[in-house]
Amino acid sequence: MRNVSRRSLLAAAGASLAAPAARASQSGTQDRRTRAFEVRLECALQERDVSPPNQVSNGDEGLYFNKLGNFSKGLPHNDLGEVDPGAYASFVDAISSGDMARMEALTMGSPDPRLQLKLVNPFAGLAFDLEGADSDSLTQPPAPRLTSAEAGGEMAELYWMALARDVSFLDYDNHETTRAAAADLSRLSDFRGPRVQGQVTTATVFRGLTPGDLAGPYLSQFLWRPIPFGVQVTDQRLRTMAPGVDYATNYAAWLALQRGIDPQTPEKFDGARRWVRNGRDLARWVHIDVLYQAYFNAFLILATPPDPSDDLTGGGLGAPLNPGNPYNSSRTQIGFGTFGGPYMATILPEVSTRALKAVWRQKWLVHRRLRPEAFGGRVHNKLAAGAGYFLHDDLLNSAALSRVKSANGTWLLPQAYPEGCPLHPSYGAGHATVAGACVTILKALFDENYAIPNPVAASADGLSLVSYTGPDANRLTVGGELNKLAANIATGRNFAGIHYRSDYAQSIRLGEAVAISVLRDQRLTYAEDFHGFTFTTFDGEKITV
Q1: Which H or E element spans position 375?
Q2: How far apart are CA 221 and CA 452, in angstroms?
Q3: Which one of the listed residues 287, 431, 499, 531 is annotated catalytic?
Q4: Which residue ranges of the chain lie beneath pLDDT 70?
Q5: What pLDDT is attached to residue 8?
Q6: In 474-494, which positions are buried (b, 16+ CB within 10 angstroms) versus exposed (e)?
Q7: CA-CA distance, 399 to 382, in Å (whole number)?
Q8: Crossing angle, helix 430-445 and helix 478-495, to 10 degrees?
Q9: φ, ψ (nearest 5 deg) of residue 289
Q10: Is 175 noted as a catalytic residue in this protein?
């Protein structure tokens, strides 16, 4: 796992902990309180002995006096949308200080405090935790530089994703926009999306990078199937947005957003509830979700047995547990508080908060990468106002730009949300890091090789579910569909215009590292004969934790 490791994470996971450390407390010969202290101390010593990695940014912050490549939304900006350098310096100093008073003294960009959008939780990156790796023991590689071919390719993809928001996933093979997107992305010199024989195709466009992402429908089965929740059931139709409505395509509106002025623009909704069937629906899903919601839903679908007597849903999948679960072969016991349903349900939010602390440290303390919303302003001001920015020709020559200009009158990146991006930096991505953490936990809990029966897809209008009958219909596995779920949720934010492909690709790996560290720490505490969970990482490696 490139640069997202602690103590060579995968090797350490494979050579994980020996016999369960908690078992000695069952003999009655050792004081329980002393043993509890020893377990906690052993875990703390393991974490203390981690050598912190170098935290390295892409260097853009030191390169540009006007901070062209860095996040600054909410601070004072000039008419080109460039941050005031003094305000930016105070902002960085206040974040690094950990001093709430200095944060409260920052000069913000809105002339009316009542309309000022607020920065999102910079101090979460400074918080400690009592389980799993400390956030400073984890890292991400430098983000692509503002002027790089990779960054240019990522922005070109986002312009195409904005243009394709209303295209049904079922129509990607035949729709002119997605066919043009695949052709344009194929010509880029450093585009890192999936390809077939060197080409981006309509079957790979906008998809994720992990095992399972290219199989079956664009969307994971876990975003379509009904969710059994005890005696209740929820179908996954959502209140989505009206087609064709984008935001921040007007320059004055865009500039106000850079200054953190709340537009107070109501969202425009579709008149019907629909199953997710296109990028706009997916962007809506990840706008107001509870961050671990998709994975808790997946847990309920996986854990609930099928019920043929339920004529509404047929129950859940009743997927088999990971072969490493110590209760699989027990004659007299089942798991509950450990290795059973309540444990599985609660470890998902448990790992999510640790993932957020880890990625917030990367966001605020290391990278501070500008959002695509601001990058779109750089593109517009270069093309419309002759601003002397060097941006890669791969982006400037993308056919997507002329289409956006023709549709909106500017080269700004159309946003799916009235408020544009949230007020925290782009890299890493919170949704993607939580996705990586929670999907890793689910792969540790369930048998990732189990084939999902009777796969479905949303109809082109999103008003019904239809059977998926593609040639790989019988090869959609739990592991592959969980990987796809992580990609869908992470890149749903890309469809909204607020994250880049590398934000997704590196942040799911960061989340995976967080989850592995939590599983390893918890292994110290078990009394069962437990020899570890074996599963496949996002990079396709089998590990045991």
Answers
A1: helix 372-385
A2: 8
A3: 431
A4: 1-30
A5: 46
A6: eebbbbbbbbbbbbbbbbbbb
A7: 16
A8: 170
A9: -75, 155
A10: no
Cα–Cα distance for residue pair 144/161, rounded to 1 Å:
19
Residue type, 127: A
Under the phi-then-psi rule, with left for phi > 0, alpha for psi from -120 to 50, and beta for the rest, what region is 349?
alpha
Which pLDDT tens digit goes with each residue over 246-284? Answer: 999 999 999 999 999 999 999 999 999 999 999 999 999
Chain length of the chain? 545
Give CA–CA dist 473/480, Å, rounded: 12
CB-based burial, 80-117: b 16+ in 10 Å, e otherwise: bbbbbeebbebbbebbeeeeeeebeeeebbbeeeeebb
Residue 234's DSSP bridge partners are: 227
CA distance 45 to 27: 25
Amino acid, single-letter form, for residue 199: Q
Whole-angstrom distance, CA of residue 67 vs CA of residue 65? 6
Q: Which residue has the tokens 């959008």?
A: 117
Measured distance CA(40)–CA(87) in Å, rounded: 43
In terms of Cα–Cα distance, which of 367, 383, 372, 389 is closest to 147?
A: 389
Pairing state between β 227-229 and 238-241: unpaired
Q: How far apart are CA 206 and CA 199, in angstroms?
A: 13
Three-state DSSP string of 193-255: CCCECCECCCCCCCCCCCCCCCCCCCCCHHHCCCEEECCEEECCCEEEECCCCCECCCHHHHH
Among 359, 358, 357, 322, which residue's Cα sits nearest to residue 343?
Answer: 322
Which residue's entry shows tokens 């302003």? 377
Residue whose C-alpha is closest to residue 287's, from 233, 239, 350: 239
| Residue of 367, 424, 499, 531 marked active site | 424
270, exposed or middle or buried, with CB in 10 Å at 0-12, 13-18, 19+? middle
The answer to whether the beta carbons of residues 116 and 262 sit under 8 Å apart is: yes
Report pTM.
Answer: 0.95
* List of E strands, 354-426: none
pLDDT at 27: 52
User: What pLDDT score does 51 carry?
Assistant: 86
Residue 259: the pLDDT is 98
Dihedral over alpha carbons 16, 133, 151, 209 (to 10 degrees): 40
